[in-house]
Amino acid sequence: MPDEMQILDNLIFKIVSGKYVANDKLPSENVIADQYKVPRITARKAYERLEELGYIYKKQGKGSYVKDRHRQIELVLSGDVSFSQKMIEKGYDFQSKNVFCKEIKYNKKIYDFLEADEGDRIFKVGRLRFIDGQPIAIHISYVAKSVFDNIDAVGMEITSMFKYYNSKGYNQFCSKPSILSVTFPTKSQRKLLECTYLIPLLVLESGCVDKKSGRVLDYTRILYRSDSFSFYVIPAPEERI
């Protein structure tokens, strides 16, 4: 008798291979139970996992439907243009909400990245990004008070770091080398992003540098819902064919 994971794997294969396409209605739990000769609870658990993984959505009283995973946001991973500007230029209904501004304890990695002295005060400013009213990314920028003297006073008002940097006289930027990794959301991140623990997050670590002075302006960690984006990385000129 197949178990929940075998049913889940089979249904995912049918969705990925195109047997079921976006907005197709899937067989009912009773049909799946009969087809695989399993208790209905096993079929229900398989569908619950499919929903948690972002493959399907449910309509109350009508059943389960395939989610359109091709309507993902195309995002070029570059640091010279703000995330807000990229989304607005693409025509999305974009919003940014400040969720925290906190002073951090000494962290060697962050202090070294910012080229800050151990006695400097570092603040992290978090913004939650929305597309069409849905939370899709958390942006956390770490900045030094020695560079931005009023960050502790105005940090909770910032929804765009680039606009804040512009107000401080920084207008041309480049990014430090970026590091990409994958993680699963913590409890607090799941609450902010309204996702389950099964939705991986793509983590982009980078930094913003003022082109004119070479001063490091921030260290940034961006957590993207992996089911909301298609990611593009622009290669260096020598890497292009």
From TrEMBL:
Known Gene3D superfamilies for this protein? Answer: Chorismate lyase-like, Winged helix-like DNA-binding domain superfamily/Winged helix DNA-binding domain
Under InterPro entries, the record lists: Bact_HTH_transcr_reg (IPR050679), Chorismate_lyase_/UTRA_dom_sf (IPR028978), Tscrpt_reg_HTH_GntR (IPR000524), UTRA (IPR011663), WH-like_DNA-bd_sf (IPR036388), WH_DNA-bd_sf (IPR036390)
SMART domains tied to this protein: HTH_GNTR (SM00345), UTRA (SM00866)
Q: Which Pfam families match?
A: GntR (PF00392), UTRA (PF07702)
Q: Which GO terms describe its biological process?
A: negative regulation of DNA-templated transcription
Q: Does the keyword Transcription apply?
A: yes
Keywords of this entry: DNA-binding, Transcription, Transcription regulation
GO molecular-function annotation terms?
A: DNA binding; DNA-binding transcription factor activity
Judging by the UniProt lineage, the source's domain of life is Bacteria
Q: Which residue range or ranges hold the HTH gntR-type domain?
A: 1-69
Question: Can you name this protein?
Answer: Trehalose operon transcriptional repressor
| Species of origin | Desulfocucumis palustris
Q: What is the lineage of its organism?
A: Bacteria, Bacillati, Bacillota, Clostridia, Eubacteriales
